[in-house]
Amino acid sequence: MTPETYKLIYVAITQGLILGFCTAPLLGPINALAVRRGIMGGIQQTVGVGAGGAMVDALCAYVVFAGLMKVGFTGSWKIILWGLCAIFLLYLAYSTLVEIRDSPETTRAVRKQVQFIDDSFVMGALIAATNPFTLLYWIGMVGTLQLAGKIELTGGAATSFFSAVLVSEMAWYICLGIAVHYSRNLFDRKALRIISWVCGLVLLGYYLFMAGKVAMNLVHTGGAPFITQ
């Protein structure tokens, strides 16, 4: 590889690590769910949720960095995908509300019907993937790197960027899992229940807010592109 290619890969790795470390700790549904599941199920549940969210983030970062997608979906694809996102977000809101209400029979019935969705990794990935603005975030972040004219020099740079984002985000979620696991001993059962309940309310609010925002965007823009050119 040429010195220019080595330099590009170095920049991709360092910038990917920085962006990953800046993205993962942001207050949001992934961290709320990771904390909630960590309290109820232990460190592996926190890491599982984080791994799902980190994988989606890294994939979005990859396709944008590699130049495979510079704008979001448009036309009928946008309507279909955003519509499905809104429906799924509303379902997640319903399932979270059931958990908050502490109805064991209803909760078990809901989880039995969609057992594969209840997996922590799957839940983390779906929460990140059903946020249509995740792609927009990475389009904006990668745009700040000012490497648009050089990205096509090597596919290794995009892979390095993907790996750096994934590794840095996973490092955060592993640390979060350890912190939640050992801090559980500092609180009594009632305090842990309150923390779990608050995290559930945060998730419920997020699901309803995002579903409403997606629906309003479709009403106002229809199949118009995410970003005007």
Report what the structure shows:
The protein starts with a helix and ends in an 8-residue tail after the last helix. It has nine helices and no strands. 77% of the residues lie in helices and 0% in strands. It has one domain (3-220).
Short description:
The chain has one domain (3-220). Helices cover 77% and strands 0% of the residues. It contains 9 helices and no strands.
**Uncertain ranges:** 103-107
Give the overall average pLDDT: 75
Rg calc: 19 Å
What is the CA-CA span between the terminal residues? 35 Å
Shape: flat
- Considering DSSP H and I runs of 4 or more, what fraction of the residues is helical? over 70%
Classify the secondary structure makeup into a structural class.
Answer: mainly alpha
Main sheet summary: none
The number of helical segments is: 9
- According to DSSP, the number of beta strands is 0
Run of helices and strands: HHHHHHHHH
The figure for the number of domains is 1
| Beta-strand content | under 5%
Task: Output the keywords.
229 residues; mainly alpha; 0% strand
